[in-house]
Amino acid sequence: MKVLHVFKDYFPPTHGGIEHLIHDVTHRMRGFEFAVLTSARSTKAVEEDDDGVHVVRAAEYGRIGSAPIAAFAPHMRRLAPDLIHFHIPNPAGELAYLLGKINVPAVASYHAEVARARA
Hints:
Elements: E1 2-6, H1 17-28, E2 33-39, E3 46-50, E4 53-58, E5 60-64, E6 67-70, H2 73-79, E7 83-88, H3 91-99, E8 106-110
């Protein structure tokens, strides 16, 4: 089964908790073929192999807050996964799936925003 993980960033180079979670799942779970779709942080798409995990960094045209404006839909179609796992919030990925009419089953994991501690 081919599973595509979609999030706004990926480790490396980003060192957040969700990025590490996706990295760990895709490198340690057996029995699945994994790919990761993330933003490139540049207007040029990049494809990489991260120790057996196909990583696609979609062209990014800016950010609103921390949310990328990226071209995710064409990659979702081309990668032809059996399942898409969205790590949300990531509005660009979610909108690409809905507006792009991607006909692939999907699941989502909501990762709460970090609440800043009061001083």
